[in-house]
């Protein structure tokens, strides 16, 4: 997304008028600029303090030289540069589309035919890079921009000539963990050649296919270790026994690209040849929803104030406030709507002619979101988006019952400004179905806010739809922090992040259990949740200056006995398992067989019959950290429990009271902002929710206004006793707002 220029930003550089900010980093700022000829460009401007460093100027000059030598339709070309000017700058072709990383996070993995086409075109780009005598060294999703006519490989900031000594310190790992080759991970700079880029391309294509990096996430050291020693996680790609030959062929190719031995990897031209059957750009290499995302993003990014005033040869009209004849009169920063539309049409046509050439034709840039007029008052509603029929249906039904109770209690009030209905959408626990479930609730203009979805995977599938409509989504169970680091306005976390649960487990160990050398086992089967837990534990242990023994196991292992045995031989005095219920059964049995009686901790993923029944007596004594309470053991929830039992003739399920609190938070804001018997619009409600301070049954609810993160970060403990969970209350002193979790968790391990 483009952001406005700041007061200290230049208005022009290198003959480019600067229109907005595209991003900023440690090297400088990237602006959206327009040349005197009217062409748009991404203009990288170096920070002044770096411009004075001779070594940095040498690196920047090398980047310019490297980028200019690469000629490929799939690499963003250099359109201008000033490496020796007082403020060094570099301009490249502007691509009005998201990065691959942004799109996968927003819309989920790409289909096989898209990944094959992506791989073919990026292999061609790498062939051009290598033909120029260069190694890119940072092929990752953030460095691939998507356009309807094909991808663009960008950022040659750490590229270097093959065989040339890099201007970096000995042993320094340059690049992005998770998308590095083994030779990069071990800083074997003398072995960095074209095969290293092929390995990174394999990582990138695996990510595009599955939505996850093939060597997991977490601390940089852990990712580098797995890159060197572990096999890649390619689950979900091929392996169909011939049912999908394209996916099977893609998996086989990626397995070769990710070979540990550089000599065993295919060359880019071989990759091109093997993917030659992929869809050509003109035939629609991207799925329709991604094309719409690109078109919508393009329109938003290009509808900038001030562009209209620089259009060449515009007739002067003294009655037109956008064209003052008085040279001393201020230039208007407001662009007439018609001007934006006409300019948008020109810019989208001028960006490779791609958007109008793709399936939807001219309708793409003119696409409308429909009528935003409010519905009739008898249609106002809260929505519940949940798994009501799949593997998580018990939690989903608890969500629905908690919200239903809150809505019914509200409707029983005599002072209500308007009645509320309840609308539900069932995703069955499927990320694919989550998108269609979200669309149903979004299209119902009476729905003002949604509680759910009930899993992190379904949040990934739905968040883009809710964000586009600015329909607030209150998350009660999902707690992965991947939403927090983005500029989303719709999601609101009504629970502590998973990272905070890891912090709470560490506080329990160090301050309550008084341990001195805990073992920490991360099972990648449940990544990214497992690595977020691990990161929280590790950060807190470092803060507490406590040694710990970490281990990471690849996804899908049924028997974790060897890993547990190694940790026991290392003399750990306690044990934390970050993984799933089935894996915990293996861990618990191994610990019990070894007679280990130290503290054993897990997370709410283990609060399930699969662990309690599967581990049997071996589960006794385990302590589980959760984000939810047992309302029947919480004095403050006594009235809720009585009302719930009267209404549903049952005890409240897990997350029912948390969903009840979330619904009442939304109702409270709706009532406070109601005017003339009508509630606020969705977008306004999203703002009001982030600014709210609300006392729920379980805890106070307040949020970070920038990212929707829950500020309180309370974590709770449950102990396994007699094959059941006994609620013990909050972790004493376990508020990470006073410890390492107060740092930005989105930067953890990066």
Quick summary:
This protein is about 35% helix and about 15% strand. The two termini are about 20 Å apart. It is globular.
The shape is globular
- β-strand number: 24
How large, in whole angstroms, is the Cα Rg?
Answer: 27 Å
Question: What integer is the average pLDDT?
Answer: 82
> What do we call the CATH topology of the largest domain?
Rossmann fold
The CATH fourth-level homologous superfamily of the largest domain: Response regulator
Portion in beta strands: 15-25%
Whole-Å distance between the termini?
22 Å
Q: Number of helical runs?
A: 23
Structural class, from secondary structure content?
Answer: alpha/beta
Please, how many domains?
A: 4
CATH class of the largest domain: Alpha Beta
Helix content: 25-40%
Largest sheet: 7 strands, mixed
Q: Pick out the low-confidence regions.
A: 161-173, 305-378, 734-750
Q: Which strand order do you get reading across the main beta sheet?
A: 17-16-18-19-20-23-24
CATH architecture of the largest domain: 3-Layer(aba) Sandwich
Domain Protein kinase: 16-275
Binding site for ATP: 44
Protein name: Bifunctional serine/threonine-protein kinase/ABC transporter substrate-binding protein
Pfam families: Peripla_BP_6, Pkinase
Main attributes of the structure:
single chain, 750 residues, alpha/beta, Phosphorylase Kinase, domain 1, Transferase(Phosphotransferase), domain 1, Rossmann fold, 7-stranded mixed β-sheet, 6-stranded antiparallel β-sheet, 24 strands, 37% helix, globular, disordered C terminus
